[in-house]
Amino acid sequence: MKYDLLLFDADDTLLDFKRSENISFQIILKKNGIIGDIEAFHESYKIINDLLWSQHAEGLVSKDFLKVERFRKFLEVNNLEADPIQLCDDYLETLPSQVFLIEGATELLKTLHGKIPLVIVTNGIGSVQHKRLLNSGLKPFIELMVISDECGFSKPDRRIFDYTFDLLNRSLLSSRTLMIGDRLETDILGARNIAMDSCWFNPDKFNNTTNISPTYEIQHIIDVLNIL
What we know:
Layout: E1 5-8, H1 17-31, H2 38-57, H3 63-77, H4 84-94, H5 105-112, E2 118-122, H6 126-136, E3 144-147, H7 148-151, H8 158-167, E4 177-181, H9 184-193, E5 197-201, E6 216-218, H10 224-227
Parallel strand pairs: 1-2, 1-4, 2-3, 4-5, 5-6
Helix pairs in contact: 1-4, 2-3, 3-4
C-alpha cells in the first residue's frame, strides 16, 4: 500500500453527525417543552455551536464553558425560556444513542482491517465520542481513537497528531500517513501543518474557496480504496 497508517476524522467522515445532531436536537427541545420553528432553531444553534468550537480550537474558551454556553446563547438569541444546563445534560445523554453511519464506512473499514492500522483523530467530548463509536459498530476495526478533549489539543494543532504518534509508539513518518476528513480548516489544514498527505471527503461537492489544498478529494468514503 501507498501508506502505512490511516487517520480518520469521526464526525461526517465515518459517522453521520449532521443527522445525529438534528434528531438529538429535536428530541431535547420537545423534552424541555420548546415549540416553534424547529428547523430555524436548529440553524441558529448550529451557527452558535460552530463558532464556539472554533473558539475552543483556538484556545479561547474551555470545553466545559462551550457545552453550556451554546445552549444559553441559543435560548437568548431566540427569546426562549429553559434551563441551558438541563438542555446540555439532555443533549449529551441523547446524542450517543442517535448514531448513524456515513454510507460505505463499514465496508471501507472492514476491507482495510488487518491490512493497515486505522485510527480516529477527532475534535469532541471524550465521553460522548467513546459511546458513539461503540454504538456505531465500528469500534472493532479501530486501533485507537484520539479525542481533543482527552489530549488537550484540537485539530488543526499539530500537537494532536504528535500525541497520536506517541501513543502508537511510532516514529513520525508523515509521508507514509494519510489523514481523511471532511473539514478543510481542521482535518486538511492539520495534515498540512505536519507535512502529511490528506484526503478531503467532500460528498456535497463544495467549492474549495480557501488556500488549503488536500492531496486528494473524494465524494464517497469507499473511494479511499482507490487512493491506496
